[in-house]
Each structure stands twice: as structure tokens, then as C-alpha cells.
């Protein structure tokens, strides 16, 4: 579904932060992305969620060559990707409901349809009582669940999460990971960047290891065992 | 929230609160310059049209008898000339009244050698060949001088044209300054909301969708500013017109606009709103092109 071939990335005239990165993600696979700080995880995620074009190399995205894809085609492609940011990046002036509704509204969904979907999803992540709360009044775990709900509301083909458990306690961390696994079972290709070794071990999914901008371990993309 | 525009920009964190006021000041200056330019042009055209159907004959002769004889001869010639509707001798008191701005109140019997003035009304502006009439007048009354006001009028109209050009320049500069202010304001807004824009962008919002949120906001800034500016300008103009009507005569009142003829001013806030909106749209779209 997604293939990186000898991808390199540098910002402006700086040193390369990613070097000859090659891997592929199969449809419905689940991968962890691990590596020390400064290894290039965030840059790789940015390439995955189409925030940047690489400086060199080839990226095939849902069967389309990203390097030659015209800018006008990118928004449609981005709507097939859900992103969970480490710092949530929720709109502070909007309620949890409005934040989660945004991707559907961007797609032009009808108001009634948006309401049904958002209410159902917020209930699924256990926030049925906090729908109209603003992010400032939510706990870290609640914010993270709103961010996850926003990322998956339009049933993305690819879900990218940057340290999704970085700001929550171990119990919440476990619950969130089960949420990701459940989504993956539904067919969403998932990539989760994390520092949490225990978490990686507990899920047992394939791991992409980055060190100084290079992938040192590249497994084949396979779906997570439903029994995990 | 549920309109055609997906308004994702917060209302509380606005740093653009002063923008409508700045636009208002610009529109105020622009409106005054525009009205002055238009009123000056149309007023002088109307006033000069009145003068082109009017000639003045001046009979200058030292001796009163000779002046009277030449006046009779000139009147006879004028009244017999086709295209002349009326030729009337101005009373000495009227001549003194015309001279009073320069000489003050001169007594009627001061013994000043006043010329005789004949006011000539033409049937229409091109009814008489002025040079031919001038020659015939001098033949009939050697002390006669014909003034068709053209020399003075052309100087006044030249001056008016220059003033109009200056006013058009002022309007152009004010409009360009407003555009520059909106661009700066919009860039500041983009910097303030950069993160929100990036998130929308990453969620698949098209450039047009993001810029519409700014369009709507800047349209309202332009409309509010435009209304403030035009209302202030209308009030100022009303005050000036009333004051000038009480004070002025002739040329001043000729150039004063009728307030009812300024109804088009109501369109200026709409013009300002669209200028502001399109400036913001272009600025935002250019900035968005920097994102992938």
C-alpha cells in the first residue's frame, strides 16, 4: 500500500535527517516505529502523513508516485490518513464534538450524518459524557482519545500516531493501544511511533527501528494477531 | 459554524480588532477625496456652461456723453444680432457692488470713472461668432470691450483639472495603502493561526476551504470599516456643505454637491468589503502554497 525506496530527507541545506530509508507497509498491517530522540522518527511520520515531500527517493502512496503527484491531488490523499499528534493539536475553541467532526466536515458530510458518526465514535472511546467539553477542561487521556477519535472518524486507510501514549498514565496507555489494535483489526494500516519498549513488547507487532536517520530493522508488514 | 464556510478560526484570539478602524479611516479619506474630485468636476462644468451663454460688454470712455452714445450704439447692434436673447445695461449701483470686494463701499457720488457694463444673454452657447461680434462692436462703439470669460474660465478649469488629478492620486494611494494594511494584517493572522491552518491542511482541507475562513472574516472587516468611514465622511460632508452654503456665493456654491446626489456612497462599504476580501484571499492562498 505504501512503499518507501531510498528516501532521503533534509530540511533546507541542513544535514540529512533520513538516509536511504526503504520499507513497505501492507494493507491492514500494524507497525511500531522506534528509535532514540533525534533518530528521525518525527520526520519519517511527517513523510507518512504527507506534511513534506522527501528530498530524494521514491514514495508510492496508494499506488501513486508521490514525487510526481500534483499538489491539487494531495488533499484527497490526506483524507485517507488519520494522524494522532503527540501534543494532540486539538482546536481549543471547539468542543470535543466539533474537533472530532472536522474531518467529516472537510469531506462535506451532511450535518445529521456528522452528528451520528461523532456521537457514536465518542461513545466508543468512552467520552459520551464529555462531548461538549472544551479541550482545556479535559484530562490528558481524554484529550488523547478525542485526538484519536478525530484521526479515525473518516475510517482512514492509514493511521499514524506520534507517541500517542507519551502524555498518559500506564493504564490509559494500555487502553489506547487496545483502541489502535481494534482499529487495525478493522483494516486500518497503523504506524505508531513510541519510546515505550514495554508497550511494543506487549502488543508484539513488527517494529521499524530508526537510528541516526537510517532504518536498522525492517520487518515485513503483517497484520497484528487478532488474539493479541 | 454549519454554513458553507468551515470557520475553524477562533474568535477570541483575534489580533485584528483594529483593522476595521484602520480601514474606516482610509475609507473616510478616500470618500472625501472622491466626493471633492467629483463635485469639483461636475460643479465647474455646470458653472462654466452657465458662463458660455453669457457675455459682458464694457464701454470705457472718459466723457459721460460719449459713453452714453457708445452704449446706445452697442445696445442697438447687440439687440439686432441674431442669437442674442437679451442685452441689459447694469445699473451703476450694480457696478459698484461688483467692485466692492476690491474698493470697499464706495459712495454713489464719489466721482469714480466707472465703465458701463452690458450683460448679454445668448440663446445658446454657440449662437454668436464672438470674434465677428467683437469687430462689429468696436466699429460701432470704439470704447467697447467684449469679454466672453474664456481666458479666465480656461485658467480656472485648468486648475480644477490639476486638483482633480491630485484627488484621483490621493484616492489611488489610499486604496493601495488599504490593500497593504490588509496584507500585513492577513499575514499576522496567518502567523497567529499557523498551527490551526496546518492541522486543517493535514486533515485534507483544500486551499480554497482554508482561505474561505479568512475571506469571510476579512469581508466583515472591510464592510465594518467601510461603513464607519463612509458614515464619518457623509457627516463631515453634510456639515461642510451646510457651512459653505451659508457663507458662499457663485463659484463655491456651484461646486457644492447635493447630499441626495451622493447616494452612491452607500456602495463604498461593499467595494471596501470586496477589496479587503480578495486581498486576504490572494495573501492566504500564496501563503498556503508554501505548505506541501
Description of the molecule:
The complex is a heterodimer of chains A (228) and B (292). In chain A, 32% of the residues lie in helices and 24% in strands. Chain A has 228 residues and is of the alpha/beta class. In chain A, strands 6-7-8-3-9-10 form a 6-stranded mixed β-sheet, sandwiched between helices. A 4-stranded antiparallel β-sheet of chain A has the order 2-1-4-5, with no helix packed on it. The two termini of chain A are 23 Å apart. The C terminus of chain A is likely disordered. Chain B has 9 helices and 4 strands. In chain B, 27% of the residues are buried. Chain B is an alpha+beta fold and 292 residues long. Chain B has 2 domains: 166 residues, no CATH class; 96 residues, Alpha-Beta Plaits (2-Layer Sandwich), CATH 3.30.70.1430. Chain B is 66% helix and 8% strand. Classes of the chains: A alpha/beta (228), B alpha+beta (292). The interface between A and B is medium-sized, with 26 and 22 residues.
Distance between the termini of chain A: 23 Å
Question: Share of helix among residues of chain A?
Answer: 25-40%
* H/E element order of chain B: HEHEHEHEHHHHH
Proportion of residues in extended strands of chain B: 5-15%
The number of distinct β-strands of chain B equals 4
Biggest interface pair, residues each?
A-B, 26 and 22 residues
Kindly state the percentage of residues in helix of chain B. Answer: 55-70%
Secondary-structure class of chain A: alpha/beta
* Poorly predicted spans of chain B: none
Mean pLDDT of chain A: 88
Counted beta strands of chain A: 10
Envelope shape of chain B: rod-shaped
**Number of structurally distinct domains of chain B:** 2
- Give the C-alpha Rg of chain A: 17 Å
Largest sheet of chain A: 6 strands, mixed
Judged by helices, strands and strand pairing, the structural class of chain B is alpha+beta
As laid out across the biggest beta sheet of chain B, the strand order is 2-3-1-4
Number of DSSP helical runs of chain B: 9
SSE ordering of chain A: EEEHEEHEHHHEHEHEE
Amino acid at each position: 500500500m505504501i512503499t518507501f525506496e531510498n528516501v532521503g530527507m533534509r530540511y533546507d541545506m541542513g544535514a540529512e535527517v533520513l538516509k536511504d530509508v526503504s520499507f513497505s507497509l501492507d494493507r491492514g498491517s500494524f507497525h511500531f516505529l522506534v528509535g532514540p530522540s533525534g533518530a528521525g522518527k518525527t520526520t519519517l511520520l511527517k513523510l507518512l502523513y504527507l506534511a513534506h515531500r522527501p528530498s530524494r527517493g521514491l514514495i508510492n502512496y496508494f499506488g501513486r508516485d508521490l514525487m510526481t503527484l500534483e499538489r491539487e491531488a494531495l488533499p484527497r490523499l490526506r483524507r485517507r490518513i488519520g494522524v494522532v499528534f503527540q501534543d494532540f493539536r486539538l482546536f481549543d475553541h471547539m468542543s470535543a464534538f466539533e474537533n472530532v467532526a472536522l474531518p467529516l466536515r472537510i469531506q462535506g458530510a451532511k450535518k445529521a450524518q456528522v452528528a451520528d458518526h461523532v456521537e457514536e465514535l465518542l461513545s466508543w472511546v468512552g467520552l459520551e459524557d464529555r462531548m461538549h467539553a472544551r479541550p482545556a477542561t479535559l484530562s490528558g487521556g481524554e484529550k488523547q482519545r478525542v485526538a484519536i477519535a478525530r484521526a479515525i472518524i473518516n475510517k482512514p486507510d492509514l493511521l499514524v500516531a506520534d507517541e500517542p501514549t507519551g502524555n498518559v498514565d500506564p493504564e490509559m496507555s494500555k487502553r489506547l493501544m487496545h483502541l489502535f489494535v481494534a482499529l487495525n483489526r478493522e483494516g486500518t494500516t497503523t504506524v505508531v511511533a513510541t519510546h515505550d519498549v514495554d508497550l511494543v513488547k506487549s502488543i508484539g507487532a513488527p517494529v521499524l527501528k530508526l537510528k541516526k536517520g537510517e532504518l536498522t530493522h525492517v520487518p515485513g508488514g503483517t497484520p497484528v494477531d487478532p488474539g493479541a | 459554524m454549519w454554513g458553507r464556510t468551515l470557520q475553524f478560526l477562533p474568535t477570541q484570539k483575534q489580533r485584528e480588532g483594529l483593522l476595521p478602524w484602520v480601514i474606516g479611516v482610509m475609507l473616510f479619506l478616500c470618500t472625501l477625496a472622491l466626493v471633492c474630485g467629483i463635485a469639483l468636476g461636475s460643479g465647474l462644468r455646470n458653472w462654466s456652461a452657465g458662463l458660455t451663454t453669457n457675455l459682458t460688454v464694457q464701454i470705457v470712455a472718459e466723457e459721460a456723453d460719449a459713453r452714453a452714445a457708445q452704449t446706445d450704439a452697442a445696445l442697438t447692434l447687440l439687440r439686432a444680432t441674431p442669437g442674442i436673447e437679451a442685452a441689459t445695461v447694469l445699473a451703476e449701483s450694480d457696478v459698484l457692488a461688483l467692485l466692492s470686494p476690491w474698493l470697499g463701499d464706495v459712495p454713489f457720488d464719489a466721482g469714480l470713472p466707472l465703465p458701463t457694463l452690458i450683460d448679454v444673454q445668448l440663446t445658446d452657447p454657440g449662437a454668436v461668432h464672438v470674434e465677428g461680434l467683437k469687430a462689429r462692436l468696436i466699429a460701432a462703439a470704439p470704447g467697447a470691450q467684449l469679454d466672453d470669460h474664456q481666458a479666465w474660465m480656461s485658467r480656472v478649469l485648468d486648475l480644477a483639472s490639476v486638483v482633480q488629478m491630485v484627488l484621483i492620486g490621493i484616492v489611488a494611494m489610499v486604496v493601495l495603502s488599504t490593500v497593504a494594511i490588509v496584507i500585513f494584517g492577513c499575514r499576522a493572522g496567518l502567523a497567529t493561526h499557523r498551527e490551526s491552518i496546518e492541522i486543517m491542511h493535514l486533515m485534507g482541507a483544500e486551499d480554497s476551504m482554508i482561505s474561505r475562513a479568512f475571506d469571510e472574516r476579512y469581508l466583515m472587516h472591510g464592510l465594518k470599516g467601510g461603513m464607519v468611514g463612509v458614515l464619518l465622511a457623509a457627516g463631515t460632508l453634510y456639515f461642510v456643505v451646510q457651512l459653505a452654503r451659508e457663507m458662499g456665493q457663485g463659484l463655491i456654491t456651484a461646486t457644492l454637491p447635493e447630499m441626495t446626489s451622493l447616494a452612491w456612497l452607500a456602495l463604498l462599504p461593499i467595494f471596501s468589503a470586496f477589496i479587503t476580501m480578495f486581498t486576504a484571499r490572494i495573501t492566504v492562498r500564496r501563503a498556503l502554497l508554501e505548505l506541501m
